[in-house]
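COMPLEX REQUEST
Ligand: N-hydroxy-L-asparagine
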Amino acid sequence: MINRRKFLSVSSIAGASVLLAKDSFAGLPALETFIITGNPIVISTWDFGIAANAAAWEVLKKNGRALDAVEQGVHVPEADPKNRSVGYGGNPDRDGKVTLDACIMDEFGNCGSVAALEHIMHPISVARKVMEKTPHVMLVGEGALQFALEQGFQKINLLTKESEEAWKKWLKTAKYEPVINIENKSFSPKKLPGNQYNHDTIGMLAMDAKGNLSGACTTSGMAYKMHGRVGDSPIIGAGLYVDNEIGGATSTGVGEEVIRNVGSFLVVELMRQGYPPEEACKEAVMRIIKRKPDTAKEIQVGFLALNKKGEYGAYAIQQGFSYAVCNAANQELLVKGKSYY
Ligand code: SD4
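STATUS: Structure written out below.
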């Protein structure tokens, strides 16, 4: 009897790193099998990066494009109401409005961005449309919303009951304290007004099987920020930068300090000069500390970087900056980036 299954000789495929093939016997369920020829990898900020990476990996393992992987990956926290600092369910600004910032960058240096966008679940996809359908890089506020609606995105209420309750609690004191992700020993989110837990931007970097790099960054920004405040996350060069010849970088933490130092661009430029990813992230952190040593003690900023060889690293001002790594060898590795304090 002729076996109609196409046989894939795993060992004969040089450079293949993971093997699973898509095929079927007549009458038998299809086997999901993929051959990954390069060394795809996806990394992203914080613990919830594990779930986001898993979605990105679905694209990468089928030899999909890194750009699609990062878009699909960050959709996961954007749609998660429990994540109070990204997308749906994100903390509002001090006027009770949820305003989202996001940007995306591909292997050709194309980029798109939205800032202070309201009512849209997936700002990263609007950013991608800005990149692909307009001659511009960045749309903000009302104009970004108008464009999103024209592109068929649905208008929704992003403020969940939980986020609204926390905001109302915060309103009782309405103390504008932009404290952000200090995960060091003395920090407890409970100490923050309105029990705000105000970090968790997702920055994601991926390299696909062809060795091409892309990145995405998306957030609801600092909790109870001034209406109209824009952080680093949608700013190309600050919250995200990708150079397909060198590598990519992304940031999390107090966006103002990242913008002041054009953080992600700096990390990529340092990698261009030969710094390994962690060392490049460290140097960018040191610039922030050097410029404002007193401020730096009180805030968190973390950088995450991936170079063209697939090497990655991270460094943060404060302890506790975690990031998730997913490649053929490790599907859910979570690593703590090194820190200054
Ligand atoms: C911002 N960088 O809006 C963002 C916030 C953030 O972890 O990363 N939080 O400044």
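REMARKS: Confidence is low (pLDDT under 50) at residues 1-25, 182-197. Residues 85, 180-181, 199-201, 219, 221-222, 231-233, 252-255 surround N-hydroxy-L-asparagine (CB under 6 Å).
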